[in-house]
Backbone:
């Protein structure tokens, strides 16, 4: 059986991969403990504006995020981040039975956002 750690480790590595972060370097952003601000590698404060897309029931993802018109609309409104929920129940609906279609949809959602120079903040939940 694949552990939750391996699944999310793969998901986070996809998020921070050079393909995903083309044009941005999220892997170099940290939180300043004194101010709570996000700081990039040049010492600049980074501001993130975005939407929450966490679906906690079947189909476990937001189908609207797969629509190129919707993605462009989100970007055109000035949003630069999507909090994308990845639900374990969507990835493994039954023990030892992984839904590769769901994992591919999550991957496509991440890659679509990267083409619009948007960032995704992955979220995981033990309670789906």
Residues:
């Amino acid at each position: 059986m694949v552990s939750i750690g391996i699944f999310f480790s793969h998901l986070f590595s996809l998020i921070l991969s050079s393909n995903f972060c083309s044009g941005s370097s999220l892997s170099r952003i940290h939180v300043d403990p004194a101010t709570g601000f996000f700081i990039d590698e040049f010492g600049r404060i980074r501001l993130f504006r975005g939407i929450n897309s966490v679906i906690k029931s079947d189909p476990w993802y937001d189908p609207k995020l797969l629509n190129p018109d919707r993605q462009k609309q989100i970007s055109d409104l000035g949003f630069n981040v999507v909090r994308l929920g990845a639900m374990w129940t969507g990835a493994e609906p039954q023990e030892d039975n992984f839904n590769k279609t769901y994992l591919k949809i999550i991957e496509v959602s991440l890659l679509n956002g990267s083409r619009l120079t948007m960032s995704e903040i992955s979220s995981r939940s033990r309670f789906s």
Remarks:
- Helices lie at 4-16, 68-76, 88-91, 100-115.
